[in-house]
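Lab notebook, bench 4. Still working through the backlog of constructs that have no structural model yet. Next entry is a single chain of 289 residues. Request: give me the structure tokens for it.
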Amino acid sequence: MASEIRQILDAETLVDLEKLKQLGRYGVPDEVRADTWKYLLGIETADKANEITSRAQNTSRYQSTASQTSNDTLKRIRGEVSRYITKCRSQRLQFASKDPSGVLENVISTYLTERRNVEYAPQMVYLAGPFAFLMASEADVYYGFMSLMRMWEDGEEGVTVSARVSEFCVLVRTLLPELHNHFEEEEVDFKECANSWFSSLLAKELPLECLLRLWDTYFSIPNGLDMHVYVCLAMLSTLKDNLEELEQSEIHGVLLRLPNIDMDNVINQAFVIRDEVLAKRLSEIDTYN
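Model written out:
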């Protein structure tokens, strides 16, 4: 698939975004992922005639934004970035950025300057981290992170993370009753774990390789982040048998640090769950009417 995607990316005049999305939803090979994401997220323009100009404008616009983040917030960003980089280095991950700590600090502080109504949250570091891992240009990291944040905000305008988590918990109780009962018996604070899963889009919990595969699909399909609730359900369904054998502290450990898992299987299962849930809702509407 890498050669097929590379052929699309290297087109002389126009990158075929529809074909790129069709391939990307099934996973993007490591060697072409950074360039693929740039087109999927709109960092690069599909029209090659404007590519150099657009890239220069993006870089200039990013570099001209002077950070106005407070010293207190910068200190908090620096602390979370340090923890994130330490975690990644313990896993021997090699960043494309030469100075990932500096890049992440700059990207998040610039984002907060641009979006003054947004307060800093530690999960921003984990959401920006994959872009710093893949992309050598600080401006590309910034626009990738910005695109992701915009997708999350625009997905269901006005719907809070808390509301998404509440919907998820109802679905867990309905679709996975045995697992839900086990969590209650073990007095697991499942909502706390779910809040992290949703606020970080699993960037904090999944191994990076699994996360990148998941985001390939999110970036390749319409309203990709709407799939997140179903991916989380599929994740629990996949881990169900193991989780039901564990006690409270062990359950927390697994939920907050997910194991390497077959993401192709999880994603396929998520689409099945989504279709079942939507079909049931339509059936209920028809019955009510």
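Notes after review: The longest helix spans residues 263-288. The chain has three domains: 2-63, 71-155, 161-288. Flag for follow-up if needed.
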